[in-house]
Amino acid sequence: MFNWLKQSKSSIEIAGGIIVIIGAIYGGTQYFNQLLSEQVRQRSIIMDLSVSNANGNYDETISIWKSISSNINKEYFNTPAKLMLYDILLYAVANSQYAYENKNILSDFPSRYDVSIPETPIRIQTSGWIDLLSDDCEAAKIKFSKAIRLSKIKNIETIARDAQRGNFYCALMNGNQTDFENYEEQLKSKYYYNLDGLADEVFQTKGTSFYVQLDKLSDGAFSKNTDSFINGVKNNQTVTLTERNRKSTTSK
Known about the structure:
Radius of gyration: 28 Å
Shape: elongated
Number of strands: 0
Distance between the termini: 93 Å
Number of domains: 2
Strand content: under 5%
Helix content: over 70%
Protein backbone atom coordinates (compact mmCIF):
# COMPACT_ATOMS: atom_id res chain seq x y z
CA MET A 1 0.00 0.00 0.00
CA PHE A 2 2.69 2.42 0.97
CA ASN A 3 4.69 1.49 -2.12
CA TRP A 4 1.64 2.25 -4.19
CA LEU A 5 1.28 5.61 -2.47
CA LYS A 6 4.94 6.38 -3.03
CA GLN A 7 4.62 5.43 -6.69
CA SER A 8 1.48 7.54 -7.02
CA LYS A 9 3.22 10.47 -5.38
CA SER A 10 6.15 10.08 -7.73
CA SER A 11 3.79 9.86 -10.69
CA ILE A 12 1.97 13.00 -9.56
CA GLU A 13 5.28 14.84 -9.13
CA ILE A 14 6.43 13.72 -12.55
CA ALA A 15 3.10 14.67 -14.11
CA GLY A 16 3.21 18.02 -12.32
CA GLY A 17 6.72 18.59 -13.55
CA ILE A 18 5.68 17.78 -17.11
CA ILE A 19 2.75 20.19 -16.84
CA VAL A 20 5.07 22.91 -15.58
CA ILE A 21 7.50 22.23 -18.44
CA ILE A 22 4.69 22.20 -21.01
CA GLY A 23 3.30 25.40 -19.53
CA ALA A 24 6.71 27.02 -19.68
CA ILE A 25 7.19 25.92 -23.26
CA TYR A 26 3.71 27.09 -24.23
CA GLY A 27 4.13 30.39 -22.42
CA GLY A 28 7.57 30.85 -23.93
CA THR A 29 6.21 30.03 -27.38
CA GLN A 30 3.39 32.51 -26.95
CA TYR A 31 5.84 35.18 -25.82
CA PHE A 32 8.16 34.39 -28.72
CA ASN A 33 5.27 34.51 -31.18
CA GLN A 34 4.11 37.83 -29.77
CA LEU A 35 7.65 39.18 -29.95
CA LEU A 36 8.07 37.94 -33.51
CA SER A 37 4.67 39.32 -34.47
CA GLU A 38 5.55 42.74 -33.06
CA GLN A 39 8.92 42.70 -34.82
CA VAL A 40 7.24 41.82 -38.11
CA ARG A 41 4.60 44.50 -37.55
CA GLN A 42 7.18 47.19 -36.84
CA ARG A 43 9.34 46.20 -39.77
CA SER A 44 6.30 46.31 -42.04
CA ILE A 45 6.35 50.05 -41.37
CA ILE A 46 9.25 50.28 -43.83
CA MET A 47 7.04 48.82 -46.55
CA ASP A 48 4.15 51.16 -45.72
CA LEU A 49 6.37 54.23 -45.89
CA SER A 50 8.05 53.01 -49.08
CA VAL A 51 4.68 52.57 -50.78
CA SER A 52 3.61 56.05 -49.67
CA ASN A 53 6.79 57.53 -51.18
CA ALA A 54 6.41 55.51 -54.37
CA ASN A 55 2.91 56.96 -54.79
CA GLY A 56 4.29 60.48 -54.40
CA ASN A 57 2.56 60.99 -51.06
CA TYR A 58 5.59 62.46 -49.30
CA ASP A 59 3.66 64.51 -46.77
CA GLU A 60 1.60 61.44 -45.94
CA THR A 61 4.83 59.52 -45.35
CA ILE A 62 5.93 62.15 -42.86
CA SER A 63 2.51 62.27 -41.22
CA ILE A 64 2.51 58.49 -40.78
CA TRP A 65 6.01 58.59 -39.32
CA LYS A 66 5.18 61.36 -36.85
CA SER A 67 2.17 59.42 -35.61
CA ILE A 68 4.06 56.16 -34.99
CA SER A 69 7.68 57.14 -34.33
CA SER A 70 7.24 57.36 -30.55
CA ASN A 71 6.19 53.69 -30.51
CA ILE A 72 9.09 52.43 -32.59
CA ASN A 73 11.39 50.00 -30.79
CA LYS A 74 14.88 50.43 -32.22
CA GLU A 75 15.82 46.93 -31.03
CA TYR A 76 13.59 45.44 -33.73
CA PHE A 77 15.67 47.07 -36.48
CA ASN A 78 19.18 46.07 -37.48
CA THR A 79 21.53 48.64 -39.01
CA PRO A 80 20.55 48.03 -42.67
CA ALA A 81 16.87 48.39 -41.75
CA LYS A 82 17.56 51.62 -39.86
CA LEU A 83 19.48 53.04 -42.82
CA MET A 84 16.66 52.06 -45.17
CA LEU A 85 14.18 53.80 -42.90
CA TYR A 86 16.40 56.91 -42.77
CA ASP A 87 16.68 57.04 -46.56
CA ILE A 88 12.90 56.76 -46.93
CA LEU A 89 12.42 59.71 -44.57
CA LEU A 90 15.26 61.69 -46.21
CA TYR A 91 13.57 61.42 -49.60
CA ALA A 92 10.16 62.24 -48.13
CA VAL A 93 11.43 65.37 -46.36
CA ALA A 94 13.23 66.59 -49.51
CA ASN A 95 9.98 66.29 -51.48
CA SER A 96 7.56 67.46 -48.80
CA GLN A 97 5.65 70.74 -48.85
CA TYR A 98 7.55 72.13 -45.86
CA ALA A 99 11.02 70.64 -45.92
CA TYR A 100 12.42 73.21 -43.51
CA GLU A 101 9.80 72.29 -40.91
CA ASN A 102 10.30 68.54 -41.30
CA LYS A 103 14.10 68.28 -41.43
CA ASN A 104 14.37 67.85 -37.63
CA ILE A 105 13.10 64.30 -38.23
CA LEU A 106 16.43 63.59 -39.88
CA SER A 107 18.69 65.39 -37.42
CA ASP A 108 17.12 63.50 -34.50
CA PHE A 109 17.22 60.10 -36.18
CA PRO A 110 20.86 58.96 -35.52
CA SER A 111 20.77 59.53 -31.76
CA ARG A 112 17.20 58.39 -31.31
CA TYR A 113 17.70 55.10 -33.12
CA ASP A 114 21.34 54.57 -32.24
CA VAL A 115 22.75 54.45 -35.75
CA SER A 116 25.53 56.22 -37.63
CA ILE A 117 24.52 57.48 -41.07
CA PRO A 118 27.37 56.98 -43.58
CA GLU A 119 27.86 59.80 -46.06
CA THR A 120 27.10 58.75 -49.63
CA PRO A 121 26.78 60.97 -52.73
CA ILE A 122 23.01 60.52 -52.91
CA ARG A 123 22.47 61.25 -49.21
CA ILE A 124 24.68 64.34 -49.35
CA GLN A 125 23.00 65.60 -52.51
CA THR A 126 19.48 65.04 -51.14
CA SER A 127 20.44 66.78 -47.90
CA GLY A 128 21.66 69.70 -50.02
CA TRP A 129 18.21 70.05 -51.59
CA ILE A 130 16.70 70.14 -48.10
CA ASP A 131 19.12 72.95 -47.17
CA LEU A 132 18.09 74.79 -50.34
CA LEU A 133 14.44 74.39 -49.37
CA SER A 134 15.33 75.69 -45.90
CA ASP A 135 16.80 78.89 -47.40
CA ASP A 136 20.36 77.94 -46.55
CA CYS A 137 22.06 78.09 -49.94
CA GLU A 138 25.54 78.32 -48.46
CA ALA A 139 25.12 74.97 -46.69
CA ALA A 140 23.41 73.57 -49.79
CA LYS A 141 26.28 74.58 -52.09
CA ILE A 142 28.83 72.95 -49.78
CA LYS A 143 26.89 69.69 -49.90
CA PHE A 144 26.27 69.88 -53.64
CA SER A 145 29.98 70.43 -54.25
CA LYS A 146 30.85 67.50 -52.00
CA ALA A 147 28.31 65.29 -53.75
CA ILE A 148 29.77 66.25 -57.12
CA ARG A 149 33.30 65.44 -55.94
CA LEU A 150 32.34 62.06 -54.49
CA SER A 151 30.18 61.23 -57.51
CA LYS A 152 33.14 61.76 -59.82
CA ILE A 153 35.28 59.45 -57.69
CA LYS A 154 32.57 56.78 -57.80
CA ASN A 155 31.69 57.61 -61.41
CA ILE A 156 28.02 58.38 -60.67
CA GLU A 157 27.23 60.97 -63.35
CA THR A 158 23.51 61.39 -62.60
CA ILE A 159 24.07 62.44 -58.98
CA ALA A 160 26.73 64.97 -60.03
CA ARG A 161 24.33 66.46 -62.57
CA ASP A 162 21.50 66.73 -60.04
CA ALA A 163 23.83 68.38 -57.51
CA GLN A 164 24.93 70.93 -60.11
CA ARG A 165 21.26 71.60 -60.85
CA GLY A 166 20.88 72.32 -57.15
CA ASN A 167 23.63 74.93 -57.38
CA PHE A 168 21.86 76.44 -60.39
CA TYR A 169 18.59 76.73 -58.46
CA CYS A 170 20.46 78.40 -55.60
CA ALA A 171 21.61 81.07 -58.04
CA LEU A 172 18.06 81.57 -59.36
CA MET A 173 16.70 81.82 -55.83
CA ASN A 174 19.24 84.41 -54.68
CA GLY A 175 19.61 86.25 -57.96
CA ASN A 176 23.37 85.74 -57.94
CA GLN A 177 24.41 86.64 -61.48
CA THR A 178 27.99 85.37 -61.21
CA ASP A 179 26.95 81.99 -59.78
CA PHE A 180 24.16 81.73 -62.33
CA GLU A 181 26.50 82.21 -65.30
CA ASN A 182 29.09 79.85 -63.81
CA TYR A 183 26.62 77.03 -63.08
CA GLU A 184 24.81 77.53 -66.39
CA GLU A 185 28.10 77.11 -68.26
CA GLN A 186 29.05 74.03 -66.23
CA LEU A 187 25.68 72.43 -66.90
CA LYS A 188 26.22 72.98 -70.62
CA SER A 189 29.87 71.95 -70.88
CA LYS A 190 30.33 69.30 -68.18
CA TYR A 191 26.88 67.76 -67.98
CA TYR A 192 25.70 68.31 -71.56
CA TYR A 193 22.54 70.14 -70.66
CA ASN A 194 20.73 71.75 -73.55
CA LEU A 195 19.61 75.18 -72.34
CA ASP A 196 16.22 74.83 -74.03
CA GLY A 197 15.73 71.57 -72.16
CA LEU A 198 16.85 73.18 -68.90
CA ALA A 199 14.45 76.09 -69.45
CA ASP A 200 11.63 73.60 -70.05
CA GLU A 201 12.58 71.77 -66.87
CA VAL A 202 12.50 75.01 -64.86
CA PHE A 203 9.15 75.86 -66.46
CA GLN A 204 7.77 72.46 -65.40
CA THR A 205 8.51 73.26 -61.74
CA LYS A 206 5.97 76.10 -61.79
CA GLY A 207 3.12 75.41 -59.44
CA THR A 208 4.91 72.55 -57.71
CA SER A 209 5.59 72.47 -53.98
CA PHE A 210 9.28 72.94 -54.78
CA TYR A 211 8.61 76.12 -56.79
CA VAL A 212 6.18 77.55 -54.25
CA GLN A 213 8.57 76.98 -51.34
CA LEU A 214 11.55 78.61 -53.05
CA ASP A 215 9.47 81.56 -54.23
CA LYS A 216 8.03 82.12 -50.77
CA LEU A 217 11.41 81.90 -49.06
CA SER A 218 12.96 84.34 -51.54
CA ASP A 219 10.05 86.80 -51.40
CA GLY A 220 9.25 86.36 -55.07
CA ALA A 221 12.83 86.58 -56.38
CA PHE A 222 12.80 82.95 -57.52
CA SER A 223 9.74 83.35 -59.78
CA LYS A 224 11.13 86.58 -61.27
CA ASN A 225 14.47 84.95 -62.02
CA THR A 226 13.01 81.75 -63.42
CA ASP A 227 10.86 83.85 -65.78
CA SER A 228 13.94 85.86 -66.81
CA PHE A 229 15.86 82.67 -67.49
CA ILE A 230 13.07 80.98 -69.45
CA ASN A 231 12.35 84.09 -71.55
CA GLY A 232 16.05 84.74 -72.12
CA VAL A 233 16.65 81.21 -73.41
CA LYS A 234 13.53 81.17 -75.59
CA ASN A 235 14.33 84.56 -77.12
CA ASN A 236 18.10 84.02 -77.25
CA GLN A 237 18.71 87.03 -75.03
CA THR A 238 21.12 87.70 -72.19
CA VAL A 239 19.60 86.73 -68.87
CA THR A 240 19.83 89.29 -66.09
CA LEU A 241 18.77 88.16 -62.65
CA THR A 242 17.18 90.23 -59.91
CA GLU A 243 19.08 89.99 -56.65
CA ARG A 244 16.79 89.12 -53.80
CA ASN A 245 16.25 91.32 -50.78
CA ARG A 246 17.96 89.35 -48.02
CA LYS A 247 16.11 89.03 -44.74
CA SER A 248 15.29 86.35 -42.22
CA THR A 249 12.76 83.82 -43.50
CA THR A 250 12.68 81.42 -40.57
CA SER A 251 9.31 82.72 -39.43
CA LYS A 252 7.66 82.01 -42.77
